[in-house]
Write a structure and sequence with these properties.
Helices cover 43% and strands 32% of the residues. 0% of the residues are buried. Strands 1-2 form a two-stranded antiparallel ribbon. With 68 residues, it is of the alpha+beta class.
């Protein structure tokens, strides 16, 4: 498993703290990776499109109501 590191330089009691892991990045292997790649390629070739305009409007309205 790979780790993503957040790098910060901070002095704490004269000790230099350089990096702490903030999350792991999942990695697919074997048949799981092959299945994922096949589905991604299939979706990329597909001419079927999903209209997300309604969802975008709902999110924008929600964020506006939350003053964000």
């Amino acid at each position: 498993m790979l780790f993503h590191f957040y790098v910060t330089l901070q002095r704490n009691e004269n000790k230099l703290i350089m990096a702490i892991a903030i999350r792991s990045i999942p990695t697919l292997h074997g048949k799981d990776a092959e299945r994922f790649l096949a589905k991604a390629e299939e979706a990329e070739k597909s001419t079927k499109r999903v209209n997300v305009s309604r969802n975008i409007k709902l999110v924008k309205d929600f964020l506006r109501k939350q003053n964000l």
